[in-house]
Amino acid sequence: MARLIEERYEAHKAEVNARFDRLRANEEELNRIFARIYHMEGEVPIEVEDKYVSVARIFDTAEEVPESFRGNRYVRTRRDEVVSLISYAVGCMFGRYSLDADGLVLADQGATLDDYLAKMPDPAHVTFMPDANNVLPVTDDEYFGDDVVAKFVEFVRVAYGEETLEENLRFVADALDPAARGGSRDVVRAYFLRDFFADHCQTYKKRPIYWLFDSGKKNGFKCLVYMHRYQPDLVARIRTEYVLPQQERYRVRLGHLDDQMAVAEGRQKAALAKERKRVEAQAAELASYEERIHHLADRMVKIDLDDGVKVNYAKFADVLAKIK
Q1: Which of 18, 69, 215, 308 could form a disulfide with 220 if both were Cys (CB 3.0 to 4.6 A apart)?
Q2: Where are the domains of the chain?
Q3: Could you give the CA distance from residue 255 to residue 241 in angstroms, rounded to a whole number?
């Protein structure tokens, strides 16, 4: 049955905000009781300021947050809730979570899809299967079959229905960037390219469990992997199955642009030249990255989850995004 994310959001917001109002009312009633017991009516404040209520309160936008809430670290916005949904979706893509089971599913070192299926109530009919090889490419276009945006679109389709897919993607895009002019998928792609990892690091207090392999600022190549499903051959597979094919795509793209520029004139030629410069920069960035990742791939680095994120992440610092 088709469902709307917006309706789920509105229902969730109403529940959360009602809980906020209820807690504040309870705290004020306790203040009245204690003031009466200790004969201090009129001498101590009864009302609880918004910024001191320690449960979530949701506003649609940051601009709607009243001054009285400034300093309340539990304040959330519609964007925050959509970001949480995207984080959960990525968790489902990696098998950390599942639409078919509550709580954590894959959270042990070296967990596999066989481990995932063993925890499913009906392994033959899984609602949404995790990515097979623990690699989700994050690129500026859909170059790979397991592209993270394509996976997210499929998650929304499976979880909320085919009929409402476009409306749901539009709601997600508007929450992420209401001023964006592109299509909803373009907005989601821009979010994964620019903001997802930063939001993830903030949520996990700079100890990310989803790692971002990142060639650099030109977005030559990025991909997400799940730390708990890491295997020593993972970096080698990223290089051979993703980085090398992407390098070839850039070579082919540059050749096509050269052919087009040879017969183009005026504005068209200028636009092609600009595009060629961008792709050339991505290709150069990826060539340098391939050398670094090749070195790591040959080492077949092992990790131990007991060492923690900080220690393990540092082993791949040369090819992973900086944690900020």
Answers
A1: 215
A2: 5-73, 81-314
A3: 22
Q: Coil, helix or strand for 131? A: coil
- Which residues, including other chains, have CB under 8 Å from residue 201's CB and lie 6 or more apart? 207, 208, 323, 324
Q: What is the dihedral of CA 73, 74, 75, 76, to 10 degrees?
A: 120
Q: How confident is the model at residue 2 (pLDDT cuts 50, 70, 90)?
A: low
- The answer to whether 220 and 282 have CB atoms below 8 angstroms apart is yes
Task: Say how far residue 278 (Cα) sits from the centre of its chain.
Answer: 25
Please state at what angle helix 184-194 crosses helix 165-176, rounded to 10 degrees.
Answer: 40
Please, are residues 106 and 96 in contact by the beta-carbon 8 Å criterion? yes
pLDDT band at 11 (very low <50, low <70, confident <90, very high): very high
**Digit-coded pLDDT (tens) for 263-319:** 888 999 999 999 999 999 999 999 999 999 999 999 999 999 999 999 999 999 999
Give, in degrees to the nearest 5, the angle at Cα 184 between 284 and 90.
Answer: 70
> What is the gyration radius of the CA atoms in the chain, in angstroms?
24
Q: What is residue 44's predicted lDDT score, i.e. its pLDDT? A: 77
Nearest 5 degrees, angle CA 298-CA 301-CA 303? 170
Residue pair 235/301 in contact (Cβ under 8 Å)? The answer is yes
Within 13 Å, how many C-alpha atoms sit on residue 19's CB side? 12
pTM value is: 0.93
Query: Which residue bears the tokens 């945006």?
Result: 149
Q: Which two tokens stand for residue 222?
A: 């990025």
* Sign of CA pseudo-dihedral 145, 151, 156, 159: positive
